[in-house]
Amino acid sequence: MALLALSFVWACLVLLDQLRVWNSGGMRFSGCLESVERLVRNGTLVGMVVAAVATTVVQAVIGGAMRGVWGTSTTAAWGNLFMGVRGDGAIVLCVVPVVLVVLSLGFVAIEAIVLTTVCSAVSWTVAYASRRFNRQHSCPARVETGYETTKAGKTVAQPLVATVGFVVFVCTFVPYQFAFLVIYFAQLMTTIRTMARARQDISSVNAGVLGDRARYQLALLLFWTSSLPYCAPELLVWVRNLSVLWFEDAASDHNLMNMVGYFGLRMIASTGVVPRLERASRGVTYVGVGASVIVAWLWGIRRPYLLYSVGNGVSA
User: Fold this and answer.
1) What DSSP designation does 272 have?
2) Which residues contact 226 (CB under 8 A, 6 or more apart)?
3) b/e per residue, 214-244, with b = 16+ CB within 10 A?
4) Helix (H, G, I), strand (E, B), or coil: what is residue 160?
5) Tell me: the pLDDT tens digits for 108-123?
6) Among candidates 92, 102, 109, 1, which has minimal Cα distance to 49?
7) Does residue 282 have a pLDDT over 60?
8) Which residues contact 36 (CB under 8 A, 6 or more apart)?
9) What's the confidence (pLDDT) of residue 130?
10) Which of 52, 83, 102, 257 is 20 to 30 Å from the Cα of 157, by its Cα?
């Protein structure tokens, strides 16, 4: 669980770095692997290693000093921060946190490589097949604004009906974990489609806009990948209950607030790249993501179920 929680922290930092470069006037939205490399080069990896060792040492020292002074509940709460106090040996205090921080960054890098490879391969296949059989998109000329243009005569009725149907389905039948899985795969399909269109478009300006959009959508996909493990247990229980015709479940499983952040950002990301934020909005965004990193760092390892809600909050 420590590896998954620290991977979530790195996913937040990768997304934060991409947004920082984009808002500072970058010519294009950075790719996930570019951001990972930048975090290694600018000293963030070293800072995280130092923070991991320092957190563990401070936790052990203060916990030992306050033993017998704090009450049982306070001592237990302090001991459950970060990786938990399990001893004061050099291996526990130094080696284990360092190894886990480095491995978790490598885990995120592998996720980025796999997602990029899969999306690129499938999008190349789609673009090639479309060119091969002359199945170009029958859309009017697109304006290079970074946002999706619509077909002539198309209304909002179709996406509105689909959205209402999806919400009703979650409120009445499927748990929000299943809804998140649908949102995740819908984002995967959107990313592949955007990459395919970028390969097909002969306009260099249009291709650049679509490339930025694809990298942004891929960045969200990498960030949401870190939330997938926390949906699996309850989702498997729900499927197991259905297999034995047991339909009773908790009311909280149908709480729309547990997926509104993911769902809202998915709808926005499907239409364009995140706009460059003004200074005030930029500060609010950075503080929100930074607070999420701190929460995941201190409580995510011992209470991993919190990380899904943290991801939902960051998406919102």
Assistant:
1) B
2) 4, 7, 8, 11, 108, 111, 307, 311
3) bbbbbbbbbbbbbbbbbbeebbeebeeeeee
4) helix
5) 999 999 999 999 999 8
6) 102
7) yes
8) 14, 105, 108, 109, 112
9) 78
10) 257
